[in-house]
Write a structure and sequence with these properties.
The structure is a homodimer.
Chain A (H helix, E strand, L loop, with lengths): L19 H14 L8 E2 L1 H8 L3 H13 L3 E4 L3 E4 L4 H25 L4 H11 L13 H19 L2 H18 L6 H19 L3 H34 L1
Antiparallel strand pairs in A: 1-3, 2-3
Helix pairs in contact in A: 1-3, 2-3, 4-6, 4-7, 4-9, 5-8, 6-7, 8-9
The first copy, chain A, binds a DNA duplex through helix 3.
Chain lengths: 241, 241
DNA sequence: GCTCGTGCCATTGTATACAATGATGTTATA
DNA sequence: TATAACATCATTGTATACAATGGCACGAGC
């Protein structure tokens, strides 16, 4: 381990990879996802070079990757801009997620290849949340992570790498919006119920029921997120005006 | 300047994008897909620099993109290698394609949003192929293109950009293998029949039937490709031995 | 004969520099 | 005042150069 002597003013430890490109990429992604860089912000290569005290090469690499993942927009001769939340695109990403996950649960139900340990583990997590109280200030980040683990765990159980990768990418593009997906106690209960329904169906190897429950879950989430994007855009506009 | 005696006579005009990275990327992809670069071939940055008379920067970019698309493997401290056809990965890509396309036809059938023009156009193309003769030396490339257009047309009709992009990527990764998918008259007839069945189901807005026919079509294709990969690998091994 | 250390080399990451392209802003003229 | 030509700047693509890391082979020592 070597001491990382070169760091920017915000000297938070960047867990990221070993090379500078990756560190910059991680930092940028973090700031974009946390809205620390507001949507529409111009990300000039030279400005970023100054900010990270790096040359253009690593910055370019980072921007390229973020552009591929859809977190920044690359306008041909003007530079990069922090992606604006886009309702239509978000809906479409949700649809793609739905497409992949429907297939996943259908396959899992047919194959019955889901480990019982995992099923139990998920049950243990979600069942208590059926009775969550309104004023329960549950850790939202933890909930979002658990939700991710639930969905991602299904995909992993199928063992299809391309599908897992695609879902990971979709998740990255949706995450800064999904923070708003689980907002209140009602939605937490609802989510828990839907997840448990999926688990039940998988255990019974009922593919149709699994598809139905999963579709319900994702569509509910999608609807919440649509509202959240509206709010977020409004707030951004307010800040600008 | 080092006199590296690498002469590629391929001075053909590369239609590709305007920048060097993109041209190199296109050339490399072409050669990999055409098996002009055999699987496992080491693609050293410096060798490629010499070959394309470019500096490392564009070459790196090209290699990176190809690595992302899965056409080359990037081994941490050894460089890039032309991807070996991988039966398991191919199967998984087919599964992912199936996942996306099942959702596409299901949605299209439910929404009934497929243009009648497109339906007719596809019918006109595939119906004659039901009666193709054994010795009919149809243009295989044209058939593969038509097949691609059929499947891609469905996705486009749904208008979901992320799904279209994903399918395009999958196609790129499968293409050098799919050339072997439609091999004989029997399979051509079968394919035509399956496609027409999908079209019928979509016209009747029967989502289940559409899913069934599409699944059949893709699974048949998948099976053929599995055999083709086996043959290809065998041939490569023979050449090596 | 086997194992371990060392030095060389390929790969990789990064920095700096230069050319070209397209956008923007300014000024001069009608 | 409006428009057109021009100057300037930001972005982008590319080249060359240097540092660092890890692998591999060769040779020395046990």
């Amino acid at each position: 381990m070597k001491g990382v002597a070169v760091e920017n003013g915000a000297s938070e430890a960047v867990g990221g990879g070993s090379n500078l490109s990756h560190r910059i990429e991680t930092l940028l992604r973090e700031r974009i996802l946390k809205w620390s860089y507001p949507p529409g912000l111009h990300l000039g290569e030279i400005a970023l070079c100054a900010e990270f005290k790096a040359s253009r090469i690593p910055v370019r690499e980072a921007l390229r990757i973020l552009a591929e993942q859809g977190l920044v927009d690359k306008v041909p001769n003007q530079g990069c801009f922090v992606k604006q939340p886009d309702v239509e695109e978000t809906q479409q990403l949700y649809d793609m997620r739905l497409a992949l996950e429907l297939f996943v649960v259908e396959s899992l139900a047919s194959a019955g290849s889901l480990s019982l340990d995992w099923l139990k583990e998920q049950r243990v997590y979600w069942e208590p949340l059926l009775a969550v109280k309104a004023d329960d200030t549950a850790d939202r980040d933890a909930l979002v992570d658990a939700d991710t683990l639930f969905h991602f765990g299904l995909a992993e159980a199928l063992g299809n790498q391309p599908i897992c990768n695609a879902l990971r990418d979709i998740n990255a593009r949706l995450r800064f919006v999904r923070l708003a997906a689980i907002t209140n106690a009602h939605r937490i209960q609802e989510t828990a119920g839907e997840h448990l329904a999926v688990l039940d169906a998988l255990e019974k190897r009922d593919a149709e029921a699994a598809r139905r429950s999963l579709r319900q879950n994702i569509n509910h989430s999608r609807n919440k997120v649509e509202l959240a994007i509206g709010r977020a855009l409004m707030s951004v506009h307010k800040k600008r005006g």
